[in-house]
Design a protein that fits this description.
Elements (H helix, E strand, L loop, with lengths): L2 E4 L2 E2 L8 E5 L2 E6 L1 H7 L4 E4 L3 E4 L1 E3 L2 H6 L9 H4 L6 H7 L3 H16 L3 E5 L5 H10 L2 E3 L24 H4 L12 E4 L9 H6 L4 E6 L2 E5 L2
Parallel strand pairs: 1-5, 2-6, 7-8, 8-9
Antiparallel strand pairs: 1-3, 3-4, 6-10, 10-11, 11-12
Helix pairs in contact: 5-6
Length: 217
């Protein structure tokens, strides 16, 4: 089904772009909303508040998925809801199956931060399988893409490690995979001020290969 995503603003190299047309997992068109609705009158329309950008790349996904355990909600009473690391992780000693479940939950939390690409490689087989099945793009670490604060624990928010403009796994272009995210940030501030200030937790929607994989409830 052809879908038209529109937001208050779209970060693309197309003047006046305020909408993205998606067909069979790829970007079919970019441009003003009125032009695209006229060109695709039968498209399903999804309206989002804020700024639509290319999906983000998480520069420390390997650490976050392979050296942190993401508890199942049923484990919250025992383990809490935040990633388990350090001595607590050593005591937990998850087996391969638990690492796979942890990775699936961690990936869902990354998608909720507008992440569509993760840095590899991944050493644990169950984690590799989870990443592959989730469909996220796996990228090599970019030179100089180290964390802003190397001593802080791994964060789900990729903007904790680098400016937003260096994390865009794009650009948005006709024919490219439809991987993008929408952030509920003011669009009247110069890019990337509002997103850097509010962080990727402001994500309201994530689209991966044309599929809506996260929508803030």
């Amino acid at each position: 089904m052809l879908t038209l995503h529109t937001a208050d603003a779209v970060l693309a190299g197309v003047p006046g772009a305020a909408a993205v047309a998606v067909d069979t997992g790829r970007i079919a068109a970019l441009g003003p909303y009125e032009e695209l609705t006229a060109a695709y009158p039968t498209a399903r329309v999804r309206r989002w508040p804020g700024l639509l950008t290319p999906g983000l790349r998480h520069p420390r996904a390997g650490e976050l998925l392979e050296r942190a355990y993401h508890p199942d909600p049923r484990e919250a009473a025992e383990l809490g809801t935040e990633p388990v690391t350090g001595a607590a992780l050593e005591a937990l000693a998850p087996d391969g199956a638990r690492w796979g479940g942890s990775a699936r939950r961690g990936l869902q939390r990354l998608l909720a931060h507008g992440v569509t690409a993760v840095t590899g490689p991944f050493a644990r087989p169950s984690v590799r399988i989870a990443v592959s099945r989730a469909g996220l793009r796996v990228r090599d670490a970019a030179p100089g893409a180290g964390p802003r604060s190397p001593d802080r624990p791994a964060s789900l928010d990729p903007i904790a490690y680098a400016p937003p403009e260096t994390l865009l796994d794009g650009p948005l272009a006709v024919g490219a995979p439809a991987d993008f995210a929408v952030f509920a940030v003011p669009v009247d501030e110069p890019w990337p001020g509002a997103l850097e200030r509010l962080g990727a937790a402001s994500c309201v929607a994530t689209v991966l290969a044309g599929r809506l994989v996260h929508r803030r409830s």
